[in-house]
Specification:
This protein has 244 residues and is of the alpha+beta class. Helix content is 52%, strand content 10%. The strands form two sheets. A four-stranded antiparallel β-sheet has the order 3-4-5-6, with helices on one face. A two-stranded parallel sheet has the order 1-2. α8 packs antiparallel against α9 and α9 packs antiparallel against α10. It starts with a helix and ends in a 7-residue tail after the last helix.
Length: 244
């Protein structure tokens, strides 16, 4: 990582403007050269959405040079931030991208799966459909603060726990994320899924008919069912819609 940052600084020159810094960041990451051991970073077309959790890790991206819409913006963010660019993460459905603010205060979307070049908001709306409500509520297309960015990284932990059927731990992580990013519809949905997993583990798999649930356990069942409905309801209120 330090090698990439140092290379970007040298490429930008002694008194770089933002255009120089952006160009240097792109070259350090996406062009093969001695600075990246002649192994440029590129989009992993075999797993573009990072469905395999390990592939979302920055360490996997650095090792394999194949990234996705989670690992690629993370690396770009680190390099660009360290050479002095005003950059943050922003979210779209199942996607992260870079929001760069220029010296005049104008925001630009940078798509790291496509060389870190500028992308129109309309492009995201066409390729990653989202409701007007989701944008108005800040569920999508909103610039994240640095604290929110750190919380966003924890979604990988949450998803790993879900895959391991460690539902209560996944819920705990989701609650920690939502305490920092209360408009994170993705995390709300994953929390709802974890609650559904607990319902199956504790009740549905053991009592096919809810009437068979012992009276002493019914408050727990009702609490989980209500929390599950609430999680999905809150996501829908932000404009989230299930993938079609």
């Amino acid at each position: 990582m330090a090698r990439l940052v140092d290379a970007a600084r040298q490429m930008a020159g002694p008194k770089p403007n933002d255009s120089d810094k952006l160009s240097a960041t792109r070259q350090a990451i996406y062009v093969a050269g001695a600075w990246n051991y002649n192994r440029a970073f590129s989009y992993d077309l075999d797993d573009p959405l990072g469905q395999h959790i390990k592939n979302r890790l920055l360490s996997t991206y650095v090792q394999t040079r194949k990234g996705n819409c989670v690992s690629m913006p993370t690396l770009f963010l680190i390099v660009a931030d360290r050479i002095g660019l005003n950059v943050h993460l922003a979210t779209a459905p199942l996607h992260l991208f870079i929001r760069y603010t220029d010296p005049n205060g104008v925001d630009h979307n940078l798509e790291t799966t496509s060389g870190g070049h500028e992308a129109r908001t309309e492009w995201y709306r066409e390729n990653l459909p989202m409701t007007d409500r989701a944008i108005e509520s800040g569920a999508y297309m909103r610039t994240l603060t640095k604290r929110e960015t750190i919380a966003e990284m924890a979604t990988i932990v949450m998803d790993h726990l879900l895959d391991e059927h460690r539902y209560q731990e996944a819920i705990d992580v989701a609650d920690a994320i939502l305490a920092v990013v209360p408009r994170d519809a993705y995390t709300m949905v994953k929390k709802g899924s974890a609650l559904a997993g607990l319902l199956h583990q504790e009740f549905i798999d053991n009592y096919p008919n809810p009437a068979l649930i012992p009276s002493a356990l019914r408050p727990r069942y009702q609490m989980l069912a209500a929390a599950n409905a609430k999680a999905f309801g809150e996501a829908e209120a932000l404009g989230w819609e299930p993938s079609k």
